[in-house]
Amino acid sequence: DTGVSQDPRHKITKRGQNVTFRCDPISEHNRLYWYRQTLGQGPEFLTYFQNEAQLEKSRLLSDRFSAERPKGSFSTLEIQRTEQGDSAMYLCASTRQTEQETQYFGPGTRLLVL
Amino acid sequence: AQRVTQPEKLLSVFKGAPVELKCNYSYSGSPELFWYVQYSRQRLQLLLRHISRESIKGFTADLNKGETSFHLKKPFAQEEDSAMYYCAPLGGYNKLIFGAGTRLAVHP
User: Fold this and answer.
1) Taking CB atoms and an 8 Å limit, are A55 and B93 in contact across chains?
2) Cross-chain Cβ contact A45/B86 below 8 Å
3) Which residue on chain B is closest to A96 by alpha carbon?
4) Smallest Cα–Cα separation from A36: which of A71, A62, A3?
């Protein structure tokens, strides 16, 4: 499968713990996006990378959230001191400029904070 | 701020009936709009984009700048069309701004 992959697919953690998610975009896609989706809502933008540079962060991304994309390939999203309100589906998408901005989504990581 | 409204959470129709999923947006300038679809147990995927003016799986969507709408239509719904549909204009840095989505249920 050469699509966007995310790991893990599911994560259950206790409040206060740190969690890290990984996203592997489609090869040669230089743009990578993270979104968060809560029950009954559409995905909400979190952050955007062009190659290794993080160019935009949503106000939804509190200080407890950090994202990286070293070497412009895979990306990680870390949540420190998780709260119950962080429970959501975290989606990753990638694209390249020549794709006319079609974003290809991964399967998501479902996080449950107890 | 850019906003998109999908007024219907659920649209329930019978097979063969026409379908219209509503989408209204607020945007300054010329928006670029998309419809994304998520079938059961599958990932979110692009259905169509207004700039292409194409029909995908029998669905079409026309951008109406006067009414700021981008409704998705299909003349004859099929059971396999049952899915979650999201309208999404493109925002700054080409991020997608999703509506809350409409679940389409097509009954036999």
Assistant:
1) yes
2) no
3) B94
4) A62
Mean pLDDT across B40-55: 87
Nearest to A105 among B45, B49, B97 (CB): B45
Q: Which of A42, A55, A108 sits opposite B86 (nearest CB)?
A: A42
Give the residue on A whose Cα is nearest the Cα of B87. A42
Average pLDDT rounded to a whole number, residues B91-95: 84
Q: Tell me if B52 sits within 8 A of B70, measured CB to CB.
A: no
Which pair of tokens denotes residue A30?
A: 């230089």
CA-closest candidate to residue B51, choices B33, B30, B27, B67: B33
Closest CA to B4 of B47, B63, B83: B63
CB atoms within 10 A of CB B53: 11
Alpha carbon of B43 to those of A54, A106, B40: distances in Å? Answer: 24, 6, 8
Residues A16-49: pLDDT tens digits?
Answer: 999 999 999 999 899 999 999 999 899 999 999 9
- Percent of all residues in chain B with a pLDDT value above 70, rounded to a whole number: 96
Chain A CB within 8 Å of residue B56 CB: no
User: B17 to chain A nearest CA, in Å?
Assistant: 26
Pick the residue from chain B with its C-alpha nearest to A50: B93
CA–CA distance from A8 to each of A31, A51, A73, A109, B56 (Å)?
Answer: 21, 23, 17, 6, 32
Q: What are phi and psi of A103, to 5 degrees?
A: -95, 135
